[in-house]
Design goal:
The complex is a heterodimer of chains A (333) and B (339). By secondary structure, chain A is α+β, with helices and mostly antiparallel strands. Chain A folds into 2 domains: 178 residues, Peroxisomal Thiolase, Chain A, domain 1 (3-Layer(aba) Sandwich); 146 residues, Peroxisomal Thiolase, Chain A, domain 1. Helix content of chain A is 32%, strand content 24%. Chain A has a 5-stranded mixed beta sheet with strand order 1-9-6-4-5, with helices on both faces. A 4-stranded mixed beta sheet of chain A has the order 10-15-14-13, sandwiched between helices. Chain A is globular. Chain B has 8 helices and 15 strands. In chain B, helix 4 links the parallel strand 4 and strand 5. In chain B, 29% of the residues lie in helices and 22% in strands. In chain B, helix 3 packs across helix 4. The chains are: A alpha+beta (333), B alpha+beta (339). Chains A and B meet through helix 4, strand 5, helix 5, strand 10 and strand 11 of A and helix 4, strand 5, helix 5, strand 10 and strand 11 of B.
Chain lengths: 333, 339
């Protein structure tokens, strides 16, 4: 990349209402044992309460407005709105995408919009990498607004109830990226996908194959294939490759942010990454559950607020998602 | 942006089964709204028949197009660094959770590639995807070859996109490569008017009404268009927005309108083609779409128009080619390819 691109501001917009994981398990007919509780490490998740202000796109608009204010960026100077949601939106994607609504409602009328599908929790890093590339390679582009809003399917918050993997909450987030921003510099991103597992986690009903089968309109996971996929090792291998490309060693990295999937997932990351996962991730996971693409902005904000990293420190962000995909971003604080 | 990224190869796949336009109009629900343009939608559209996929899935259409393009290019699938799906209508499974990109990666054996999908722009997703793909390739030394792929299977009984067009099923693929001396992508310009986001959409299974199910015209996955707003809010700005992206991309690369030898434009309808041709003073022989024999193919129109023009010898060495389109959202896009 020619010009450095960095994060000017990040925000989250989460519903006020929270539900305990125990309640959700009961509601969804899943067995909540002590073993499951320990593996998940999630106590409660934010959930929309049916209020119009808490639709996915309205929360995304609120997050975007806050991020632009925090970054002190005039919406008219935004060149591109990049959307990274994972859950179904108000209307069917790709015919409709909330990025158009966000563009209109924040007043970014001189921008164009782009959204990404199919990467699960890695979608954020796909968006980050693509936005950084557009800002660094196009002289006419300086500022990008990255945004998401995800609301889970009612009755489908516990992923794979027979052997739960995570509990998903609702929320939105936004990140303002700018060329020549002083901090949060996006140095590089390594992306990986394994198409053999394109259907490891997906929503079978509601599109062309099963258009009218409401019973299939829920996120399904093939747990055996999910478990067999070497997530932490893949991410470590990718991180080493990325660091080598940047001329850095793993010992140069101050800390690592991971997705808030479960305590079990985080433990695997701690092991693969030599206990460098930041302590901010665990409490965010306990109090919010897995918020899809919003996990990164949530953890990033906590990391910055914690004061545990100083300017110039290197950090990694790692994520694995459906598709299956894996992504690692290297940032300089 | 690196201006040595070019189109190594492009091709498309259309399912062999065809359906006459008369049959489409007989089978499908007739819109009752009036259309502002002074045309008879059914008689004047200029498309005789549509390609209709039978047992093939939307992903099959993508994969068939990808395979044809790979074969034509002669490159090894393992050379591909990026796969980007730019399909613009509902896919086999619900997006954005799923995209066909991973399935394409698996089917063609592009084991080194990263697969993702771009889900904005409607028919202009071609331009949005070009912009992102070229930026990613330009910014990253490790991305040398990208495969852009799309496959559209129209939901049953929804081929009539009144008042815009009638739509065919099909797939397309484009291989981009660095260090090209011909077919170089000089620039891409995209613009979006987000306030029109709710003028053209498909309700999901979660917000369909019981009356949409079954009956003579089951409407699962059918597009909902607000024709009144279409007349009032889209038509008046359409050519203005085209001018904006066309002038934008010309300015980006220091070219003038008169430098453009050939235009690839979507096959919406004869009246739409004529409006563009008149507004930009482009004679029909310098535009794709004449005859409109395949029907409208969403974002794949850009690839079909380009490939057909190349094969017919309408684009020659040294020509500057403009590909311009608009799409749901609403977005407009224009790109310039130097032959």
């Amino acid at each position: 990349m020619r010009a450095a691109v960095g994060i000017l501001a990040a925000t989250c917009h989460l519903p006020q209402h929270k539900r305990s994981v125990e309640d959700l398990f009961r509601e969804e007919g899943a067995n909540f044992s002590a073993d499951v509780a320990a593996r998940l490490g999630i106590k409660q998740v934010p959930l929309q309460n049916g209020d119009a202000s808490e639709t996915a796109s309205n929360m995304a608009v609120a997050a975007a407005q806050k991020a632009l204010q925090r970054a002190k960026v005039d919406p008219l100077t935004v060149n591109v709105v990049v959307e990274y949601s994972i859950m179904p939106q108000e209307y069917l994607v790709p015919v409709w995408n909330m990025s158009n609504k966000v563009q209109a409602e924040v007043g970014a009328s001189k921008s164009f919009v782009v959204g990404f599908s199919g990467g699960g929790s890695s979608n954020f890093m796909v968006a980050l990498s693509s936005a950084a590339a557009m800002l660094s390679e196009n002289d006419s582009m300086k500022t990008a607004l990255l945004v998401t809003g995800d609301t889970t399917i009612p009755g489908n918050r516990v992923l794979n109830p027979d052997d739960p993997v995570t509990v998903m909450g609702d929320g939105a987030s936004a990140v303002v990226l700018q060329r020549d921003a002083p901090g949060g510099v996006v140095i590089d991103t390594e992306l990986w996908s394994e198409g053999n597992h394109h259907d490891i986690c997906y929503i079978p009903g509601g599109s062309l194959i099963h258009p009218d089968d409401m019973s299939l309109y829920r996120m399904q996971l093939d747990k055996a294939r999910y478990d067999a996929f070497p997530k932490a090792d893949t991410l470590r291998r990718m991180s080493d490759k990325l660091l080598e490309r940047a001329g850095l060693k793993f010992s140069d990295v101050a800390c690592l942010l991971c997705s808030n999937i479960s305590a079990q997932d985080e433990a695997a990351m701690q092991q693969a990454f030599e206990d460098k996962v930041s302590p901010v991730c665990a409490p965010n996971r306990e109090s919010h559950g897995h918020l899809q693409g919003t996990d990164f902005p949530l953890n990033y904000l906590s990391l910055i607020e914690s004061g545990s990293v100083k300017q110039g420190d290197y950090m990694l962000s790692v994520s694995h998602g459906m598709g299956v995909t894996a992504a690692v971003s290297l940032l300089r604080c | 942006m690196n201006q040595n990224i070019g189109i190594l190869e492009a091709n498309y796949y259309l399912p062999p089964t065809k359906k006459t336009l008369a049959q489409v109009f007989e089978d499908e629900e007739k819109p009752t709204e009036t259309f502002a343009a002074n045309v008879d939608f059914e008689k004047d559209i200029g498309i005789d028949a549509l390609h209709v996929a039978k047992n093939e899935t939307a992903a099959d259409l993508c994969i068939n197009a990808a395979r044809r393009t790979m074969e034509k290019s002669g490159i090894d699938p393992k050379e591909i660094d990026l796969i980007i799906d730019f399909t613009s209508i509902p896919e086999d499974y619900v997006a954005p959770t799923w995209s066909a990109a991973g399935q394409v990666q698996k089917a063609i054996g592009a084991t080194r590639a990263f697969a993702t999908a771009i889900n904005t722009g409607g028919c202009a997703s071609y331009q949005t995807t070009l912009k992102v793909a070229c930026s990613l390739m330009s910014a990253n030394d490790r991305y040398n070859t990208a495969l852009l792929v799309a496959g559209d299977k129209t939901p049953e009984f929804n081929h009539n996109y009144f008042p815009i067009t009638v739509v065919s099923d099909g797939g397309s693929a484009v291989i981009l490569k660095k260090n090209m001396t011909k077919r170089r992508i000089l620039g891409v310009e995209v613009a979006t008017v987000g306030r029109l986001h709710d003028m053209w959409f498909i309700p999901g299974i979660h917000n369909r009404k019981p009356e949409d199910i079954g009956g003579k015209y089951p409407r699962w996955l059918h597009v909902c268009g607000d024709v009144q707003r279409f007349n009032k809010e889209l038509i008046p700005i359409n050519l203005f927005m085209f001018r904006k992206v066309i002038q934008g991309v010309l300015k980006q690369v220091g070219k003038k309108m008169q430098d453009v030898s050939y235009f690839v434009y979507p096959t919406f309808s004869t009246w739409d083609l004529k409006a563009f041709s008149t507004a930009f003073n482009v004679p029909p022989e310098r535009m794709s779409g004449a005859g409109m024999h395949h029907g409208h193919l969403q974002e794949t129109d850009m690839v079909v128009g380009y490939v057909d023009a190349l094969e017919a010898g309408r684009i020659k060495d040294g020509d500057l080619v403009m590909l311009a389109t608009n799409g749901a959202g609403f977005s407009w896009g224009a790109s310039l390819v130097q032959h």
